[in-house]
Amino acid sequence: PPEExxxxxxxxxxxxxxxxxxxxxxxxxxxxxxxxxxADVLREHPTRFYGxxxxxxxxxxxxxxxxxxxxxxxxxxxxxxxxxxxxTEHSLRRALFEGALGRxxxxxxWTDGWYEFDGEPxxxxxxxxxxWWIGPDVTGEPTVEGRVxxxxxxxxxxxxxxxxxxxxxxxxxxxxxxLETSETLPxxxxxxxxxxxxxxxxxxxxxxxxxxxxxKSFNPHAEREVDIETYRAAIREAVTAQLAxxxxxxxxxxxxxxxxxxxxxPLPLGGTATLDPDTETIRFD
Length: 285
Known about the structure:
alpha/beta; Glucose Oxidase, domain 1; eight-stranded mixed β-sheet; 31% helix; globular; hydrolase activity; hydrolase; Class_I_gatase-like
């Protein structure tokens, strides 16, 4: 039951011997847990939390309480391949044992392959780097810095629909929006419609920067197939169209290594990100 899961979270956060809590995997109903949580317990015991996908529900809840959380979990981050990818290991060690990730460069390779524990190793592809967008109203130095809010597109859209756990719009002023799409393979048009809704609510204009994770494009159990290059281009077009209308002052980076493709950095929701299009660098401090 959701209330029992909430109690388990509270006990883990309140236990002084527990330095961090890592989710095993994702799901599709953590939203039901949030209303049973005691916000004061989590605020007073800001234990580091690690998870993403459905766990972004809790991470967005923690964001409102000033608690930084990281986008990594047992599966798939640590358990899907015979060895942890060195790129993931390097950034995860920083998230576990240091205060910040620092500069995060693009991974040299990536995969969105569907790993079976008794199957063949996943196929890795060369990473062609990030793609940057600078809004038409940006003048002078395009570097932006702000607190990171967002996560998995599906979870962000749920929070927009329920409205119960959205932050005060003032708290999003100057923030960095992070979005990545999961194995559900949402249509690029729907991503654009969600951003349009954020624009009409007066939210999208608050953000100075946007981080878009490389979209996952393969799921053998999905109802449709997508071509990765076509899908990436469609999502980029959908996002930039809404930014141009509602946040023309913003800058955006596409193809960032976080979310449902591998390897990935443990994106720190609530942490501070710096985006510099001139040097094509991203930092998390």
